[in-house]
Amino acid sequence: MRKHLLLALCIGAFATSCQKKDADNTNTDNVSTATLAKIKTLGFGTDGVRKVENGYLVEGDIVLTDELLNGNNENKLLRVATDEQYRTTNLVSKPRNIRVKVSNLGNAFIVGTDTALARYNALGLELTFTRITTGTADINITGFYQGPSGGYITLGSAGFPTGSGNPYNSILMNTHPQAYGSSPNILYVGSVIQHEIGHCIGFRHTDFANRSYSCGGAAVNEGASNVGAIHIPGTPTGPDPNSWMLACSNGGNRTFNANDKIALYYLY
């Protein structure tokens, strides 16, 4: 679904692909060489990096904050094999109820959020989720408006937990008509939000080492690094079809598969 990239949906004949082509992902204007080096050291791709309000957008739907980029991450992450469930160094403290608020978005995004939260809550994890309409939220879901580029369109973006044990506090959902259409499918929107929540609580893309698995096109591997992602024990070392954390959306409903549940139960 990633996303991020990414969480992106291809337009037209490539409706099942979710990642922009490399040729369209080389714009790193206004991003310093030093920052790109930090991003690469953390094990993320550096093609198409963009400066955003809260940090830098990488892989199409992941926001890396300045706190994460400038933190001491040495030897805390380890890349193993190529297709597995991965987590980041930081996780959310548990047990914990995470409050989620949807602001200035239509009914499809509200119901889609309820759908995503219900799927997490049904697992009986030590993390639970509640949608609130007033008060302070732990995760705020708001909109942005961005059209397609190079035949693809970003569906949403999020970041990773903080070092203090809190989830990433923002999910941005694309309100452009070509993202979800004029009458968004609730299960589709819910699947995207479910994916972005996965990032907020510490999950990386299942196929981050080769996003062509879900995105199509040429194989994209971010390269070897001493840091990158922590493999979650009990999850496969080969391709994992239909994982909720695949980099690119299949254009429809996608929820937890068996290995996703193993990963979630192991962490939470």
Could you characterize what this model shows?
One of its GO terms (molecular function) is metallopeptidase activity. This is Dual-action HEIGH metallo-peptidase. It comes from Filimonas zeae. This protein has 268 residues and is of the alpha/beta class. It has one domain: 3-Layer(aba) Sandwich (Collagenase (Catalytic Domain)). 23% of the residues lie in helices and 18% in strands. The protein is built from seven helices and twelve strands. The protein has helices spanning 33-41, 66-70, 107-121, 177-180, 186-200, 212-215, 258-267; strands at residues 8-10, 50-52, 55-58, 62-64, 86-87, 96-102, 127-132, 139-144, 152-154, 156-159, 170-174, 230-231. It has an eight-stranded mixed sheet with strand order 2-3-4-10-11-8-6-7. Strands 1-9 form a two-stranded antiparallel ribbon. Strands 5-12 form a two-stranded antiparallel ribbon. A hairpin with a 3-residue loop joins strand 3 and strand 4. The two termini are 22 Å apart. The model is unreliable at 1-26, 74-82 and 222-228 (pLDDT under 50).
Which band does the percent of strand residues land in?
15-25%
Average pLDDT taken over every residue: 79
CATH-defined architecture: 3-Layer(aba) Sandwich
Count of helix runs? 7
- Rounded to the nearest angstrom, the radius of gyration is 17 Å
Give the name of the CATH superfamily: Collagenase (Catalytic Domain)
- Domains (count): 1
Major sheet: size, sense and barrel closure? Answer: 8 strands, mixed
CATH classification class: Alpha Beta
What are the secondary-structure elements, in order, as H or E? Answer: EHEEEHEEHEEEEEHHHEH
- Helix share of residues? 10-25%
- Give the overall silhouette: globular
User: Which structural class fits the helix and strand makeup?
Assistant: alpha/beta
Q: What is the first-to-last residue Cα distance?
A: 22 Å
Order of strands across the biggest sheet? 2-3-4-10-11-8-6-7
